[in-house]
Amino acid sequence: MIPVPLGAARPWRIAACVAALVFSAPAARAASVTECTPSGLCYCINADFRDAIAEKVDYFRKAIAEQRTKGKAVGYLSVPLSTTGGGFFGVNREVAAKVKTRVEARLGANSAWVLDPTARDADLPMLNNVRAGQGDYLLMWTRILEGPKGLGEDFDFVYFAGPADFAAYFGLEGRDDMDRLSAWFDERVAQDADLKRAVERGTLTKSAFRNYYALRASVTFSAGAHDEWNVIRGINTRRRDDKAFGMANQLPVLFDGRAVATGEYEQPVAAGNVGACKAN
User: Fold this and answer.
1) Is the pTM of this model over 0.85?
2) For the purposes of burial, counting CB atoms within 10 Å of the CB of 71, is it exposed (0-12), middle (13-18) or buried (19 or more)?
3) In a domain, 5, yes or no
4) Inside any domain, residue 16
5) pLDDT digits (tens, 9 = 90+) for 15-43
6) What domain range is 92 assigned to?
7) Torsion, Cα of 253, 258, 259, 262 (10° steps)
8) What separation, in Å, do the N-terminal and C-terminal C-alpha atoms of the chain show?
């Protein structure tokens, strides 16, 4: 082929070559970086989400402040969310909304407000065709929970969802619970495209779903909730040592509808996502 001088090249050919280079190049992915909170808890995050995380932290601090101007006690709900171990994201999000409503009704809707971390306005945006990971979300929620001073000063209590909360959602009564869950699954999968897709992809089975919601549906089996428990434990440790708070002003913690015992307040649990990025 005889080379064509650049000046003689036709514009449409140059444009085609440029377009080919642009669209064939792989999208650059931000490096994983370790980000820590003022209290020293660190997470491995995608650097692209730094600004989005900061925006969400600011958004929820303003939302909390608004509720406080109404004289409400502010709570935080910890609940399993991801589709893993037999659980399903869509169902867990619905359970969280029900628990929020029930806790607010129990305490009085005019007197209490519960921050539901599964609400859609808590979703981090997709960036460069990449979804935020557990580390990104846990950094966000840890910063929100700790507050500006690391003492959880924006919150009045924390509620950890347990088996009874999930049983209430499904209408389980302690008899034929697994059979009821199997029937519930059959009805839901026929109507829920996301659930059907999860089954078709092999990420969820009917038996795994049944077993999870009958036996394991609780923060006990959630990596993120483990982190949140340790965050709250750290906050209460600092409160006990702070003259402005002290023992009497620790954050109240409820699990499955009841207040946890004294010893439970001070017990750490296995970390879920806490930790610096690992070298490749």
Assistant:
1) yes
2) exposed
3) no
4) no
5) 443 344 333 444 455 689 999 998 899 99
6) 32-265
7) -120
8) 46
